[in-house]
Amino acid sequence: MTFADLGLIAPLLKAIQEQGYTTPTPVQAQAIPFILQGRDMLAGAQTGTGKTAGFTLPLLQLLSKNKPASPKRKVRALILTPTRELAAQVGESVRLYGKHLPFKSTVVFGGVGINPQIKALANGIDILVATPGRLMDLIGQKALDLSGVEFFVLDEADRMLDMGFIRDIRRVIELLPKKRQNLLFSATYSDEIKTLASSLLNNPAEVEVARRNTSSELVKQSVVLVDDTRKSTLLGKIIQERGYKQVLVFTRTKHRANKLSDYLQKIEISAAAIHGNKSQSARTKALADFKNGAVRVLVATDIAARGIDIDALPHVINFELPNIAEDYVHRIGRTGRAGCSGEALSLVCVDEAEYLRGIEKLINKKLEREIIEGYEPDPSIKAKPILQGRGGNQNGGGNRRTNNAKKSTGEAKPSGRTGQKSNPQHREGKKPAHHA
Ligand code: AMP
User: What does pTM read for this prediction?
Assistant: First the structure.
């Protein structure tokens, strides 16, 4: 199967060739023909499967076939993504794949000035990639006319709902013309996603591709048992002794991400932290430094890391296990891509035993445990509940739903469920720990 077999037009085939892609990925092979037929689509696919090209290529083709009704440029395709990073990446894909077509595209998200975005929109844009919060701000400022939208894409819809964007999404949908093509991508199918899909999609084609890396032979997964207080020093030792050059490290909280990044720098391992409290420019810089090798360790929270696309990342370390088992799958999916082998190591303390059990149940696999000499867990330490808030979880417990309203930065506010006051400093959510 080639891209030409899928019926794609020459300007797209040329752009694909320039990207060096030779064969469509499974989601591309399945989705592209349906989308070209003009069908709505519900697709179960995660970042890393090639889903972005899966919807961008046919969308560009349809846009180039259907001529706009009026010569004045209006937004014809609206793509919503949960995070700024994903928006930027999708925007870049639109630009690359659409290189030989005459469309204008732009990306809007929070955390950066709104005025240049207003100006870009005023000049006329065909394809708009946006995070929900900033999109609502732009609509509020009457900077956006959605009456010409022919294609509406919800990317990583499950994550958008987790982040509390459902009300914004529904409001956006109300502003769209009735006749349009809708595409919904989601890694998981909760009841909430099913409800959204049934109200949004009209007789959708359904496409499902294997969850990335859940049982991938390419990712070697293991667990190192260690006391919580000794995790930082052990991490430094592992990175140094094993000579890891590029490691993505996950923590549950922004606070711990900062602390760990500071510690690693103190012991002369170059590191940067990336999370929702960092400015957009700091996040972009940290990611660029990590990609080009200037920074050896990128410490990230789950939300910040969502959508980060780095080809062939060799090592992922869970400094703390995620409290939502599915996030483990997302995290380790950062390695072992594109046919390269990868390693995912989790540092697990006694408090995290329940999280580990949940993960093993989800992936249906018992992970190999290791104890490193000199770092043996102290058997007298008893498990204590994992705290919420600053020192605790960022994503909350088993119920992933939040009641959050929008946030203009493109990330969610803390849940109202804890009764905490909304604090823009701690936007990645503070819900009760789910300590089953
Ligand atoms: P995505 O799931 O859309 O985030 O894509 C993951 C990565 O796969 C990106 O780096 C793409 O550039 C790459 N990619 C997409 N389609 C193909 C393909 N057909 N062949 C090789 N790489 C691809």
Answer: 0.61
